[in-house]
Amino acid sequence: APDIELHRLECAALIGPNGAGKSTLIKAVSGVVPSKGEIFDGGQNLQAVSRRARARLVAVVPQMAFLPPHFTSWQTVMLGRTPYLNFLGHFSAKDEAIVRCALEQVDALSLAKTPVGNLSGGERQRVLLARALAQETPILLLDEPTAHLDLKYQVDILTLVRDLTRMHRLSVLLAIHDLNLAAQYAD
Q1: What integer best gives the mean pLDDT of the chain?
Q2: Closest CA relative to residue 136, chosen from 155, 104, 164, 177
C-alpha cells in the first residue's frame, strides 16, 4: 500500500474522482472509521492514543457536517474546545479567547451570534474552519471544503487555508476533486 507523508507548513492535496476513497482516508486518519494501515504523527501511533488525545492532534473540516441549526456560530466554534474541557466540563476564559481568535482569523467574528442555520455556504465553511482552528491541532484535514460553493467562496476558503497553514505551522491534507484548485493552492 502507498504511504502518504505530510510535513509541517505543508498543504497536500488528495485528489481523485468521486468514490475514489478520499473521504474514507480522511475519516481513517481522524479515527471515525477503522484502518488497517498505520497512522503516525512523528513517532506517535495515532491509533494507539485515546480519542481525546487524537482530538488534540487532528482537526477535521468535514464535507457534510450536521450542525444544530439553532447553535450560534460562537457555540459551534466552542465545540472545537471540547478536547480541552476541564474536569468539571466547563470552558475557561482561555477557551473563549481561543474561540474569539479563531473566528477573527477566518473573518467570521461578526457572525458569532448568528445561528448556523442562517449562514450562507461560504459563511458556514468559515465557521467550520474556525471550529477546527479552535481545536489547536498540528494536523488539519479538510474533506472537499469547497463543495457546493461558488468560485469566489472557493478561492476565499482555499486562500485562507493556505495562509492558516503557514500561520499555525500546520500539516494539512486537503481532499479535493478539482485539479486546477489543487494545483493552485496545495504544495
Answers
A1: 90
A2: 164
Q: What is the SS3 string spanning 11-77?
A: EEEEECCCCCCHHHHHHHHHCCCCCCCCCEECCEEHHHCCHHHHHCCEEEECCCCCCCCCCEHHHHH
- Helical residues (DSSP H) of 73-173, grouped into ranges: 73-78, 93-105, 121-134, 151-167
CA angle 62, 68, 70 (to 5 degrees): 140
Q: Which amino acid is at 118?
A: N
d(CA 98, CA 115): 20
Hey, what's the cell of 92? 475557561
Measured distance CA(113)–CA(73) in Å, rounded: 6
Q: Is the pLDDT of residue 2 over 70?
A: no
pTM for the whole structure: 0.91
C-alpha–C-alpha distance, residues 22 and 122, integer Å: 22
Contact between 9 and 169 (Cβ < 8 Å): yes
- pLDDT tens string 41-74: 777 777 778 889 889 999 999 987 788 999 999 9
pLDDT, tens digit (0-9, with 9 covering 90-100), for 105-134: 999 999 999 999 999 999 999 999 999 999
